[in-house]
Structures are given as C-alpha cells and as structure tokens.
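Case study 2.
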Amino acid sequence: MQRQTYCNCAGKKVPVDECDRCPADDWIDDDYYDDQPLYPPGKLASMTLEELEKEGERQSDRQGRLGDAEVINEYEVERTEARCRAIEDEIRRRTKSGCEQ
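Prediction:
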C-alpha cells in the first residue's frame, strides 16, 4: 500500500510522491495516512463463493444498520461500502473467468 498525505491544493489524500508540498500544506502536523486494509491479504481469494455471498450479505446488513443509526459514522459507512464492492468484484471476477469454487 502506498503512503498517502493530505494535499490542500488537491483537496484530498494523494500518494506522497504526487503532492508538491505547497505552502498551503504546511498546516498539516500529522500528514501521513495509513488506512487499515479492508480484509487481510488473501482473505477474499481464500473464500468459497458461498462464503463470499454470506460475507456480502453480512456487510450489506451492516451498511443498513450504519445508515439507520442516530449518529452516522461516515468513515465506517464508506469502509463497509468498500467491503461490499470488494466482495462483488471478487464474485464477478470468479464467475466471469469460470473459477467457481
């Protein structure tokens, strides 16, 4: 995973080597971000299609509960949505290539 920093000019996190470190970025004290991986490496690849579908349902349920919460945690909602997309991509990759397990 590539290290990222917040770039004020871009208005978002960017790879460290893409930030020009303009004067507007000087206010940032802790400027490096290391997001936790959504799943441990190889976790989705080692799951069967049935396990992937169950995990997809679990993450969809979690996403619904997070969206219905009284106080919405945007970070957790985004990570849950990303997990759903990762699972959908893995299922799509396997079914397209005929690698059903």
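The chain has a mean pLDDT of 80.
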